[in-house]
Structure formats: structure tokens, C-alpha cells
Design goal:
Strand order of the largest sheet: 1-2
Shape: flat
CATH superfamily of the largest domain: Tetracycline Repressor, domain 2
Strand content: under 5%
CATH class of the largest domain: Mainly Alpha
Distance between the termini: 66 Å
Helix content: 55-70%
Structural class: mainly alpha
CATH architecture of the largest domain: Orthogonal Bundle
Length: 240
């Protein structure tokens, strides 16, 4: 460890190093753990040294959400003909085009935001967009537009997919309990529930806790499929 710290201290300080240290602190202790003093200690420097690379805490918050955005896979872009470039043909051939590219991006975004539990709320609250977030948004919009969707449908499609990614992730993280805790809470809920009055609710709770679903499709995947299929139907009806 001393050798690693010495090596880190010899590495020139940069904006990227400051932001990466801030991301690590936020992952470990939430946004409340982000102070200039703690970030500096993580880097083995004095707090004043940080101001050569970041303006203030707001600049750090804008920067770390852009670091997260850069982790999202947006490689499944499509050209103006609607053919998808997926570096080796990932996905079903019948789904190539805007649907597959959007699915890949949405799944990657959901996984990345889940890795950083603080990022979802920061994503919706920070209005100063960095280059990675702007690129993410531009690629998402271009995917719909290059797939032949109208301007209005592109607008709605972009927002409904983003709302699904963010809404699902925030709800998932809000539970804040592992499966053992949820099982205990669910058992207690079922014991106190007047099951004769709410039979379908009881069945639903058991599906979450003790009865595996026949389909391996997650709620996120199921919702995303419904959204993309619905967009596709609207697109076809407008084109016919």
C-alpha cells in the first residue's frame, strides 16, 4: 500500500484523476461523502491543489455524472440506411436497426447507473451537460432519426425510453435491501395481509419472493420490449 500511494502521489494531478477519485468516493459513501478535503486525501494532495483542475463542488458533480455517461455503451449506432453497426453482429438479425441499437444502449445505461447508486438522481438534476452526456443524447436521438422515425416520434421515443431507464433504476435502488431482507419483509407483510380480501396482491408478493417466474425476462427487459414494440407499431402506422 505505501508503494501504491507513493506511485499515486507521483502521478501528475489532472481533472480526470480528480473526477475518478470523486466517483470512487461517491460509490463508497454517497454524494454526501464528497468534500474537497476527502477528495484531496484520496489523491494524497492538499485540497487547494484541486482548484487548478475543478472550479468547485458543482463542477465536480457535473464532471462525475459525465464520467458515468462515458461508461455507457453507445457503440450500436446505425447509419442513414438503418443498418446497425454492432462490431460483430450482436443481436438478432431480424431486429437490426434502431430497435436493437436502442435496446443495447438502454440496457447498458441501466447497468451503469445501477453500478453508481448516486448517479440516477444526479443525472436528472444536473443541467450542465458534459461532452459524454451530450454524445449519449445525440446518439440516442440520431438512432431514432436515422431509423426513419418522424421528428415528433423521435422526440417521444427518446423521452419514454429514458424515463424507463431512469425510473426503473431509481425504483430498484430505492428498496435498498438484499433478497434476505426482502424475503423477511415479504413474509411479515403476508402474515398481516387479509389474503381473502386481497388474493391477487398476495399472489404478486409471493411471485416476488418465493415463486420464480416462468420467463427469465426481467421487468426492465419486459418494459423495454413493450416500449420499443409500441414505438415500432406507431412508426409503421405513420409510414403506411
Amino acid at each position: 500500500m505505501p508503494e501504491e500511494m507513493a506511485t499515486a502521489s507521483r502521478t501528475p494531478l489532472s481533472r480526470q484523476r480528480v473526477l475518478q477519485a470523486a466517483v470512487a468516493l461517491a460509490d463508497a459513501g454517497g454524494l454526501g461523502s464528497l468534500t474537497m478535503r476527502k477528495i484531496a486525501a484520496e489523491l494524497g494532495v492538499e485540497a487547494m491543489s484541486l482548484y487548478h483542475h475543478v472550479k468547485n463542488k458543482d463542477d465536480i458533480l457535473d464532471g462525475i455524472i459525465d464520467v458515468v455517461a462515458a461508461e455507457i455503451d453507445i457503440s450500436g449506432e446505425i447509419d442513414i440506411s438503418g443498418e446497425i453497426d454492432m462490431s460483430g453482429g450482436r443481436g438478432d438479425p431480424e431486429e437490426r436497426g434502431w430497435k436493437s441499437a436502442t435496446r443495447l444502449r438502454a440496457v447498458s445505461a441501466q447497468k451503469v447507473l445501477s453500478r453508481h447508486p448516486w448517479a440516477g438522481m444526479l443525472w436528472v438534476s444536473r443541467l450542465n451537460l458534459g461532452p459524454a452526456r451530450m454524445r449519449y443524447m445525440d446518439v440516442a436521438l440520431a438512432t431514432f432519426r436515422n431509423g426513419g422515425l418522424s421528428e415528433d416520434l423521435t422526440h417521444h421515443a427518446y423521452h419514454v425510453v429514458e424515463n424507463h431507464v431512469l425510473g426503473y433504476t431509481l425504483q430498484l435502488l430505492s428498496f435498498g435491501a438484499d433478497m434476505d431482507d426482502l424475503a423477511e419483509l415479504g413474509d411479515q407483510f403476508l402474515r398481516e395481509l387479509p389474503e381473502d380480501d386481497y388474493p391477487d396482491l398476495a399472489l404478486h408478493v409471493r411471485q416476488h419472493l418465493v415463486e420464480p417466474l416462468e420467463s427469465e425476462e426481467t421487468e426492465f427487459d419486459f418494459g423495454l420490449r413493450l416500449i420499443l414494440d409500441g414505438i415500432e407499431r406507431i412508426h409503421h402506422s405513420m409510414s403506411s
